[in-house]
Amino acid sequence: MSRQIRKAQVQITPHLQRIVVGSDEFKDLTPSYIGHYVKVLLPHNGKLDLNIKTALMRSYTINHVNEQTGALTLDFVINMHQGPATNWAQTAKVGDTLAIAGPGPKKLDNYSHSHYVLLGDLTSVNAVKGYAQQLPHSAKIDMFIHAPSAQDIISLDTLRPVNWLVTNSPDESMLTALNNLKIGVQPPIVFMALEAGLVRKVKTKLNELYAIPRTHIVASGYWKKGLNSESYKQQRQQAAQPA
């Protein structure tokens, strides 16, 4: 179904472009969906494909939902990676049309644990933000988020401490940060959404240092170094096909 979109476009940091999307069809959405993801169907060559199987599509975490209209606030990473979503965000104007599929469920679904470790970067900062706001107040939470510059640090609207790793060497910084986790008798639940290669390194390190079982790790490679978003999507689709 085609949706007429209204956008308010703000570049909130050197690498984040904030866009608000909405229409009359969004009125059933509520703030309870903050932290969930939606599939954004983007126009390609001036046309919008509404077939979920063939559309030019990317996933984005909901940053905010307007209580009155249901309009969604989404943050697009810019000036870091190449791809159709980045290109669209940088040139979007009021009156452009796209479509939204979802919202889909959160990837982390255990909200009764005593300790969580949340690892992210600018591509996943709103997912981390959503969990930080909704995990139990009694739980211990260790949060580490990579940002390429101090200007990219944004508020996560939480009183919980956030460790911002401001560096051009995210792999080294993220892996070093994990050395000082205080792990109790019960292993923590880990959510990570990072560059695909770093996800593999972090999984290995968590196993070596703390023997955290894979069942306690919810991991996503949101992007891959050296590949634009379309190439990475195709690579993942090929890897998922049976041999």
UniProtKB/TrEMBL annotation:
List, alphabetically, the SUPFAM superfamilies matched: Riboflavin synthase domain-like (SSF63380)
Cite the InterPro entries for this sequence.
Answer: FAD-bd_FR_type (IPR017927), FNR_nucleotide-bd (IPR039261), Riboflavin_synthase-like_b-brl (IPR017938), SIP_FAD-bd (IPR013113), SIP_fam (IPR039374), SIP_rossman_dom (IPR007037)
The UniProt record lists the FAD-binding FR-type domain at 1-110
Q: Which GO terms describe its molecular function?
A: oxidoreductase activity
Among CDD domains, the record links this protein to: siderophore_interacting
PANTHER family from the xrefs?
FERRIC REDUCTASE, NADPH-DEPENDENT, NADPH-DEPENDENT FERRIC-CHELATE REDUCTASE
- Spell out the family assignment given in the record's similarity comment: Belongs to the SIP oxidoreductase family.
Q: What protein name applies here?
A: FAD-binding FR-type domain-containing protein
The upper taxonomy is:
Bacteria, Pseudomonadati, Pseudomonadota, Gammaproteobacteria, Alteromonadales
